[in-house]
Specification:
The structure holds three protein chains of three kinds.
Chain A: E1 31-36, E2 41-46, E3 49-51, E4 54-57, E5 63-67, E6 70-76, H1 78-99, H2 105-117, E7 126-133, E8 139-144, E9 150-153, E10 155-159, H3 162-172, H4 188-205, E11 212-219, E12 222-229
Chain B: H1 4-9, H2 16-19, H3 29-32, E1 44-45, E2 48-53, E3 56-62, E4 64-66, E5 71-73, E6 78-82, E7 85-92, H4 93-113, H5 121-137, E8 144-152, E9 155-161, E10 167-169, E11 172-174, H6 178-181, H7 183-192, H8 199-216, E12 223-230, E13 233-241
Antiparallel strand pairs in B: 1-7, 2-3, 2-11, 3-12, 4-5, 6-7, 7-8, 8-9, 9-10, 12-13
Chain C: H1 15-25, E1 35-36, E2 40-45, E3 48-53, E4 57-59, E5 62-65, E6 71-75, E7 78-85, H2 86-107, H3 113-126, E8 133-141, E9 144-150, E10 156-158, E11 161-164, H4 168-178, H5 185-202, E12 209-216, E13 219-228
Antiparallel strand pairs in C: 1-7, 2-3, 2-11, 3-12, 4-5, 6-7, 7-8, 8-9, 9-10, 12-13
Helix pairs in contact in C: 4-5
The chains are: A alpha+beta, B alpha+beta, C alpha+beta.
Amino acid sequence: MMSHEPEPSPTTCGAPLLQRGFDPYRDNAGTLVGIAGEDFAVIGSDLRLSLGFSIFSRDQSKLFKLTDRAVLGSSGCWADCVSLNKFLEIRLKTYGFEHNQPMSTKAIAQCCSTMLYSRRFFPYFAWNILAGIDEDGKGAIYSYDPVGNFERVPYQAAGNSGPQVLPFLDSIVGKKNQSNPDKAPITKERAINLIKDIFISAAERDITVGDGTHIIVITKDGLEEIRLDLRKD
Amino acid sequence: MALMRDAIFHSEGFDPSSQMSPCAETRNQSLVAPRQRTQEPTYMSGSVIGLCYENGVLLAADMGATTRFTRIPHQPRILKINENTMIGVSGDFADFQYLEKIIEAKMIDEERKNEGFQMKPRSLYVYLSRLLYQRRNNFNPLWTNIIVTGMQDGKPFMGVVDMIGTAFETNLYSTGFGNYLGMGVMREAVEKHDGKLPLQAAVEALQSVLRVLYYRNTAAFPDYQIGNCTASGVKIEGPMRIDSEWEIAKH
Amino acid sequence: MSLCPDLPRPGFSFDNCKRNAALESRGYKSKGFVKTGTTIVGVCYKDGVVLGADSRATGGNIVADKFCDKLHKMSNKIFCAGAGTASDCDKVTEMIRGQIALLELNSGRDVRVASVVRIIKQYLYRYQGHIGCALIIGGYDATGCHLHSIAPHGSSMELPYLTMGSGSLAATAVLESRWKPDLDLEATKKLVRDATAAGILNDLGSGSSVNMVVLTKKGNETFYPYDIVCAKGVRSGLYDFPSGTTKVLRTKVIPYEIEKVEVRGASEEDEPMDI
């Protein structure tokens, strides 16, 4: 048989390299869905915090209210999600003191990216979606990867069920690959009901989605919160 | 563009294995290896169980610590911090004792300032979550899972912090093996009383979890403590002994 | 014909394990398989045995089947609940069922639970845990009611109440606090339901509904499902597409010549076709 053993490294003095027990990352799952409209943005998360096959909490929203016109959804390694949002909160507070006004959604989007990239080589294991209203009063969704690549998109799904949900959004909201689709912009009610239905469906097929969903609607008048129960198994 | 997962797993950044020396016996190794850190627990303690009830919050834990081969009984693991806060710690016992010292120093510091108010449970919970997260970032974790409980502005509070800094607030939780065994029992008890669990039912639920843990966990001890935090203060009772039934085992 | 079929002589060949490890070390990813993160429960009572199982099959984080059957019939009075790799459980029980049927035909008697357990554990032991079946076997035979569990490596035990699978710890907590010797049928069914439901609610690998089978000297009585613990969510929207959504890129008509035409008169009893 061919040998694939690594060369003994100088630090081990020839002793075999042992695998150590500490892993700094945990996947606490979580699913996020965001849809931007003409003058609103909707973002939803599930309420289940889990690790492996066990449920940590049945009531843990993954949405963080940053300002009264921007909400960040974070899922993945919950320790990183919480920390990222704590640091972000500090940045936003400092900005508020220095500029005597809250940070705009566009600026928050860039700030998130910078903070994520600051940990490029020990990343925040967090999938983020930022939802908010921009300076022109239009709905905005920003989609991130864990190391800070970001893009403004009309809708996005991330987290554990992201890969299942995104094609559905492409079809229903994006109207991709359809001849003569109805291109009218999505209404607020339709977007809310869509996100509710998405979580109901995701709970059917994804074991990490369940217990409930927390939806925040962002309009120029502020934030409106909606909660919905999901199946608990 | 390499997105998402690739970015994490193909990063050339911090390689923890390069920071650690795998075997301590070799004499000249300590010269080569930069740092030696506690990335493995030694004396471990078992589950801590917490449950919020109608007008307070309970914390229970068996008393003792184990390695794979040895057991040290009668080790209390529930700490009273002040009149409205208590914590329960499971995991590495040395790290627990270190935490105990840190928190004590913090309390003395607060007392010395004499500003007329006490630390609230949520403050301690956030403080511990930051501490553990920072230690995790330095690849020098405190190998502990902590449940912080108490009365936060007159309401029962429970916050959970684990060894990598995962932090969340909940109404019931169990660390360790009890996470698999006991959470169902506690959830059933809470649902049965529609969220308004009376003290007696809460204590019974905790005792039932402790009993099952004693039956099924090789590292569990029969002696336990229960801490109760209400508006009138923290009271830690124990040691008490689990009333176990071994006749069934004969069937 | 021998009563017991001969087992192939040498044990399991591990050649492919080495090959697979070598392939994986060079970056080949082996195909995933469906693992039933499962809760299965078995409880003896004074007249027989009750087996229960949840009905979720998972592949990674995805629910592969919401109503799968984890209770396998081995003989009229013996059932086997399976946890672990779904196909292993299905195939092992299917194969052993064949052997047992032959054994019963050859001997002219009902097979005993102990025989079933022995055949399965010897089979599993030869594969040293590579066949991922964790089984609970319960049944009624000439010597009374029995409940055994078999781990994938082939070890087995006989106990008055048992659980296996990823939800076994949650279920154990219920059984340990509520099981008593000589329960009656209704109490046992309730206990099995509650233990399985604890697994369904607290373990992500288990879900949907509780299936149950009661085995007594009269035979078996199955409940599919006994209780739906978590029902399907109800969506408010309709997500169908208007006709013409798919773009017609090209049309080509191929005339189809019909030699004989027979038209059946439509009667009122004909139901409209399901669309």
